[in-house]
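Deliverable D5.2: sample structural annotation.
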Amino acid sequence: MIIAAQPQQKLTFEEFLEQCPSEGRYEFVDGEIVRVLATRKHDTVAEFLSDTFKDESKRSSLNYWVSGRVTVATLSRDGRQQGRNPDVSVVDRTVWDASPTAYSALLDPIQLAVEVVSTNWEDDYIDKLDEYQRFGIAEYWIVDYLAIGSREYLGNPKEPSVFVYAPNAEGAYQYARFQGTDRILSPTFPALNLTVEQILKA
C-alpha cells in the first residue's frame, strides 16, 4: 500500500506535520513523508468496517469517533517518532473533542486501529503491530482479506483472516484469529455481530 517517499532528507516529526500535503493519505516513516495508496477493494473493505463501527457506536450508544483520516504518533523499536494513518481509527470522542481546532497527530492512544493488509503485509503484522502496542492502542485489527500474510499466521492452506489484538494483564498484546463464519469478538464493540465472511462480501 505504501509506495513512494516524498523528500530525500530526513525530517523531524514536527516538520512532517507542517509539510504533509492536505490531499491524500500520508504517513511519517523513518524520517520521510510516505504516500499511502490503496486498491478500490482495499478501500471498500476499510469503508465497510468504518460504516459498521459507526452504526454499532450509534446502536450501542458508545462514545466513539470513527474515521479513516486520523494520524497517530507512534515510536519505532529504536525510538524514532513515526506518524501512522490506520485504515480505520476508533477514538474516544472525549479525546477527539478535547482539541477541536488541532491539525496535528493524536498523541493519546486511540481505542481501536484497523489495518487492511496489502502486498507489504509485514508492515501490518510486524512494524505497526509493535508500534501500536507500544503506543498503547487498546485494540488492533489486522484484516487480511486476500490471505497474503505468511502461513505462520494464516495456517496451511492460507485463508482470509481477521486478527484481533488486545493487551493481556501484563500489557502485552495477545490475539485471536477469526476466519469464515466466525463471529469476530471485539473488546471495543462487545455486541458486534460481524463475521469474516461478511467482510469478504463487502
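Annotation notes: The first helix runs from residue 13 to 19. The mean pLDDT is 92.
The annotation will be released with the project's public dataset once the embargo ends.
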